[in-house]
């Protein structure tokens, strides 16, 4: 009996919610690149910008929300 019900599918779905589907600051789309690669993109291409802007940051900087949990 498996005491840890996480499957590869569950892990993939969870990871998809760890970073947005596209960049807040440019037109870059992320198709399964992973959280670390997303963060690297933001830090390298958009220095001093937030990787995970909250609702106040999105409104202040006129960004487009991505429907992520941290935007609440």
State the distance separating the first and last CA atoms. Answer: 38 Å
| Alpha-carbon Rg, integer | 14 Å
The DSSP helix count reads 3
Give start-end ranges of low-pLDDT stretches.
1-11
Helix/strand-derived category reads mainly alpha
Principal-axis shape equals globular
The description of the largest β-sheet is:
none
Mean pLDDT: 84
* Count of spatially separate domains: 1
| % residues in beta strands | under 5%
Number of strands: 0
SSE order, as H and E? HHH
Helix content: 25-40%
Summarize this structure briefly.
36% of the residues lie in helices and 0% in strands. The protein has helices spanning 8-16, 35-45, 55-60.
Report on this structure.
- The protein is mostly helical and 72 residues long.
- It has one domain.
- 36% of the residues lie in helices and 0% in strands.
- It contains three helices and no strands.
- It has helices spanning 8-16, 35-45, 55-60.
- The longest helix is centred in the middle third of the chain and has 11 residues, at 35-45.
- The radius of gyration is 14 Å and the shape is globular.
- Mean pLDDT is 84; it is low at 1-11.
Describe the protein's topology.
Layout lengths: L7 H9 L18 H11 L9 H6 L12
Keywords, separated by commas or semicolons:
disordered N terminus, 72 residues, mainly alpha, single chain
